[in-house]
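pls design
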């Protein structure tokens, strides 16, 4: 038996393939995010839950005190950018309560940088209380030379 494809069928099939190829990456194709966190920190767990709800595949490793601080230093996180947990995704470091949208932006833009950070634990940042009551905070891009620049700003709610 010989299969015949009409010109219309061929064109429709070709269009379907090109549209499928143009669809942006989904959560399933995002690289995994590995988090080091203090086992006694509830806000770290809340941040992980937010990332998972946003479609990130997250693994968690517990680490405390000096070991966690050394991990941050070994991976280029300046002490002034420190927070309670540290993550790694696709070769980038994520320090603190960084919103998922900023992580996606980092992965899309792929700057030549160590990663991004939200220093401290600003109230209302992801995992630190309701966004509707947040204090103003900034997300910083950490350059390879250790310098930083504002990557995103969040106004007080």
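designed seq:
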């Amino acid at each position: 038996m010989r299969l015949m494809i009409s010109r219309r069928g061929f064109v429709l099939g070709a269009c379907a393939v090109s549209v499928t190829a143009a669809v942006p990456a989904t959560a399933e194709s995002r690289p995994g995010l590995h988090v080091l966190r203090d086992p006694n920190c509830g806000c770290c767990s809340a941040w992980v839950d937010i990332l998972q709800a946003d479609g990130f595949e997250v693994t968690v490793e517990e680490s405390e005190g000096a070991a966690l601080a050394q991990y941050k230093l070994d991976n280029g996180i300046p002490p002034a950018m420190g927070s309670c947990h540290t993550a790694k995704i696709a070769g980038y470091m994520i320090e603190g309560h960084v919103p998922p949208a900023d992580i996606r932006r980092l992965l899309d833009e792929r700057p030549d940088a160590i990663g991004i950070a939200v220093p401290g634990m600003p109230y209302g940042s992801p995992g630190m209380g309701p966004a509707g009551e947040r204090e103003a905070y900034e997300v910083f891009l950490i350059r390879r030379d250790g310098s930083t620049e504002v990557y995103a700003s969040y106004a007080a709610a």
